[in-house]
Amino acid sequence: MSLRQEDTTLTRCPDPAGRHAAKAHAEPHEEPGRHWFIDRPKVYAADVKGRFRQLKWAVLIVLLAVYYITPWLRWERGPGIPDQAVLIDMVGRRAYFLWIEIWPQEVYYLTGLLILGAFGIFFATTLAGRIWCGYACPQTVWTDLFMWVERMIEGPRTTRIRLDKAPMTGAKLARKTAKHAAWVGISLLTGGAWVFYFNDAPTLMGELLRGQITSGVATFIALFSFTTYFFAGWAREQICIYVCPWRSFQSAMVDEDTFLVTYEDWRGEGRAPLRKSQSWEDRQAAGFGDCIDCKQCVHVCPTGTDIREGQQISCIGCGLCVDACNDVMQQIGRPLDLVRFDTQSNQIAKIDGKPERVKLVRPRTVIYSLIMLIVLCAMGIALMLRPTLDVSVLRDRAPLFVTLSDGSVQNAYTIKVLNKTHIARSYAVSFEGLRDAHLSVAGDAGTSEQAAGSGGSLTLTAEADSVATFRVFVKVPAAAVKSGSTDVAVIAKDLDSGEAGKHASVFMAP
After folding, report:
1. Beta-bridge partners for 369
2. pLDDT tens, position by position, 231-251
3. Residue 294: helix, strand or coil by DSSP?
4. Is there a contact between 397 and 460 (Cβ–Cβ < 8 Å)?
5. Is the Cβ–Cβ distance between 155 and 148 less than 8 Å?
6. Rounded average pLDDT over 247-267
7. Strand, coil or helix: what is 4?
């Protein structure tokens, strides 16, 4: 199934008449006879009532509530640990999601979330086209909110058109000022709420009220506020049509069994206005269909798309045109759903007089579902089995080794012990693969050397929820030294739980 992009393609005028028309509209600096882009008229979306409009309102309210309320939710994690339920702590280098705490070393969880999000959109698109774009995309949600504010202040569609064409007066200036002030207020709330996800919300709110925020916080609030104001207030459908890359990907995700906003041209064509003196029998005998060319489907579309021209890349699949057309069909006494969510296969079946079918289980949906299930299970298993201990080792390279006066050889290592628990832990650190090794720590602060046994060991302590760094010296007697490089494993074992972390390294000798 292909999607047409009539309004966004680069065009030239091939015939002499077209060249003359282009020349008439060309700017002074343009080369005569060349017109690069089609002027796109401003979209004045009309209000509409219906089941899809109600669904959009419900989704909008839920998503905005989640966005604005989430930073204020609390989750008790213990003393000294942030109690914000969802927090990206840039200073502490942690991400908190309810009971889950993500460390920088676990960025692969973010990769998993991105994969789930991508294939989730693939799955939704395969089932119902650009349903994500029409209902859940942030650009759609905030644009819908801004357009509602515009209708409340400036009036319905026809009133807004007349207002924009009218000369500037005090009343017009007042309405425009009120609208943009409301947009700026919503944008500031949006930018402020976003920053709350990266700071403790109550604390930051107090700083905002006292005017004590840092320049970094102020910069990010200004940045996100401006982008919200520009994208939702000014760019609007231009983002969906020209900027968003998903508009180009969707044609590869849909097939003949995908539910898309569809105009039943076999029933609606040919189009003609409805005359009071003409009965439907006479109208049908004259070759006219159910479409009375009222253009209500175009007027309510947030991107200005005429769905009667077929599937187009500018259609975001919101279904508002379905509500508008059904309202008109009800008024003139014709069957509903001249514009409807339907599949290409069902449309062909209707024309051929065959029964319709809904085919949700098909190769695309199965593959996307399996990928999401695998990724979700892998992330779940990784979370359940994630260690609370991690060890990293960096051996000194200058010098590679030191030969002591008694002939023994010493290497130096920087050992980092990551304690992911919320209490201090003690770990027994040893080197596996070295015979008669003797371990010591620079300064011996906070450590106690234990009986070495066959390999030597140190007891090191790491504070709660932190990374403890130690500089460890490993000395091997001359009789036990192997020349060249010896593979070793650095093992840190939790003395309380028995959990162990392991990291491979080498011991260098002459």
Report:
1. none
2. 999 999 999 888 888 877 877
3. coil
4. no
5. no
6. 89
7. strand
Angle between helices 170-196 and 51-69 (to 10 degrees): 50
Residue type, 248: S
CA dist., res. 435 & res. 482, Å (int): 10
Give the tokens for residue 300. 């309510």
Q: Residue 402: is it exposed, middle or buried by C-beta count within 10 angstroms (0-12/13-18/19+)?
A: middle
Please provide the distance, in angstroms rounded to a whole number, between the alpha carbons at the two ends of the chain: 70
HSE, side-chain direction, 13 A CA sphere, residue 348: 6
65 touches 141 (CB < 8 A): no
Of 159, 137, 185, 181, the residue nearest 302 (C-alpha): 137
Locate the DSSP E strands across 304-462. Answer: 339-342, 389-395, 402-403, 409-419, 425-432, 438-441, 448-449, 457-462
SS3 call for 94: strand
**Residue 153 identity:** I
Measure the CA–CA gap between 462 and 416, rounded to whole angstroms.
Answer: 9
Cβ atoms of residues 342 and 317 within 8 Å: no
Alpha carbon distance 409, 510 (integer Å) = 8
DSSP 138-193: HHHHHHHHHHHHHHHHH-SHHHHHHHHHSPP-HHHHHHHHHHHHHHHHHHHHHHHH
DSSP state of 498: -
Predicted TM-score (pTM) of the model is 0.80
Q: What is the mean pLDDT of residues 138-157?
A: 96
142 residue type, one letter: W
- Cα gap 473→365, rounded to integer Å: 57
Stretch 365-373: mean pLDDT: 95
Half-sphere exposure of 226 (CA within 13 A, CB side): 6
b/e map 463-481, b = 16+ CB within 10 Å? eebebbebebebbbeeeeb
Count the alpha carbons within 13 Å of 498 in the hemisphere toward its beta carbon: 0
Q: How would residue 432 be classed by pLDDT, with cut points 50, 70 and 90?
A: confident
Judging by DSSP bridges, how do beta strands 466-476 and 438-441 pair with one another? antiparallel
CA nearest 254: which of 301, 311, 322? 311
Gap between the Cα atoms of 491 and 502, Å rounded: 5
CA distances from 122 to 32, 314, 371, 420 (A): 45, 18, 11, 36
Dihedral sign of CA atoms 70, 72, 73, 77 in order = positive
Which candidate, 141, 151, 229, places its Cα nearest to that of 188? 229
Q: Are 396 and 413 in contact (CB under 8 A)?
A: yes
Mean pLDDT of 408-436: 88
Q: pLDDT tens digit string along 283-321? A: 888 889 999 999 999 999 999 999 999 988 889 999 999
Question: 323, 51 in Cβ contact below 8 A?
Answer: yes
CB 156 within 8 A of CB 186: no
What type of residue is 394?
Answer: L
